Amino acid sequence: DRVAILAANCPEYILTFWACAAMGAVAVCFNGWWTRSEIEYGLEATNPALLVADSRRLARLEGDDPGVPTIVVEDDFADLLAFAPDADLPGTPIAEDDPIVLQFTSGTTGRPKAALVSHRSFISFALAAFVIGARDSMLSDAPPSAGGARLAVFPLFHLSGMQSSTVTSLMGGVKTVWPMGRFDPARVVQLTINEGITAWNGTATHIYRLLAEPDIDGLDPSQLTSVAIGGSASTPELIRATEERFPHLVGTFGSGYGLTESGGLVSHAPNDMLRDAPDCVGCPLPTVEVRIIDDEGSDLPDGENGEICVRSPLVMLGYWDDPAADEAAFLPGRWLRTGDFGRMAGGRLHLATRLRDLILRGGENVYPGEVEQRLEEHPAVAEVVVHGVDHPTLVQEVKAVVVLHPGADASADELTAFCAETLAYYKVPTIVEFR
């Protein structure tokens, strides 16, 4: 059975996920920014036996019955806990390759696809993270420290939020603090002080906003022993700004590469590797194999650019109910075609470009094709191209270049409002250029 979760980060979200994992159900993580049409699509595509939702997101259905039994976080969870306060976990036998989550990814040509990820993938990610942490600890000049706490700001509907920030942290016995509600830098700084948080992790946008928060002057810089940036590319400027605020962390920043379909991470580059090869994204993780292929599917020699293919225990089982997408995504032998372009050189992976033109806006993935498809539905639009443009804090912003039909009229505000009717806010272009 599948259990859909449509909620902001909250304890009930994590409890629902662990309940699903314990009894062999599949948690379906709906994007918390989805609009009504996107929620309806997710329900229809995955046919869950149960929906767990908070009232704010449930309200986007405008009073319509979601067509599935629903638990409202604010109203029903207390009753559940009172009904069975001492219930034991079920003794359900679970195999490593049983699915644990359905994780939606932005569709390259329209609707999002749901990647089916296994228990084996989650466990393998955690073990790989522990190996990376052990290496960093051995190379660090600082003595090992016990205790501490980790900040978790990634949305739980992202693989980085559930798999890395939640499951891996809790497997490691780390105190983890999730701010609830919309990201508020001042509140996060205060939580850091009050809860003794020693490790920050977030997207480049999160870290930009935290560094710009005036209240950060009240935080003792030495309290933080780690700042990790993921989910979107960091920049040399951001790393310099972070090192200026936390000078004791100079030389600790790493980099990596991964995608939802690969199970989160493919490679990791510690700081010493980046100093030698600043443009690399590291060596493949333990248990991860990487191939570079040409247009014919043949392996390319070291140093030549081609499509990156990955095989590992972390890789998704496949797309939910989409055999055509599976056929396109996998080569024989369970090699995942990432759609990204790069090369291997001396055991290190280098990214050249993305074949899929992905826009990374504040840690959220936006595929131009989905936005273009919506704009093409507007009667005034003849042609449209959507692409990413640089942004100082979001990393990228969404821009639409539009050609109107002869004699037609439409303003930028009209087109963005049209997009906002069916697309999550982060997909809506903030820049519209008419040609």
UniProtKB/TrEMBL annotation:
Q: Which UniProt keywords apply?
A: Ligase, Membrane, Transmembrane, Transmembrane helix
Q: Where is the AMP-dependent synthetase/ligase domain?
A: 1-320
Keyword Aminoacyl-tRNA synthetase recorded: no
Instruction: Give all residue intervals belonging to the AMP-binding enzyme C-terminal domain.
Output: 370-434
What's a BP term from Gene Ontology annotated to this protein? fatty acid metabolic process
Q: Which InterPro entries match?
A: AMP-bd_C (IPR025110), AMP-bd_C_sf (IPR045851), AMP-binding_CS (IPR020845), AMP-dep_synth/lig_dom (IPR000873), ANL_N_sf (IPR042099)
Regions annotated as coiled coil:
none
Q: Does the keyword Transmembrane apply?
A: yes
Which PROSITE patterns is this protein grouped with?
Answer: AMP_BINDING
Q: Which residues cross the membrane?
A: 12-34
Q: Single GO molecular-function term?
A: medium-chain fatty acid-CoA ligase activity
Q: Which family does it belong to?
A: Belongs to the ATP-dependent AMP-binding enzyme family.
PANTHER family this protein is in? ACYL-COA SYNTHETASE, MEDIUM-CHAIN ACYL-COA LIGASE ACSF2, MITOCHONDRIAL
Q: What is this protein called?
A: AMP-dependent synthetase/ligase domain-containing protein
Species this protein is from: marine metagenome
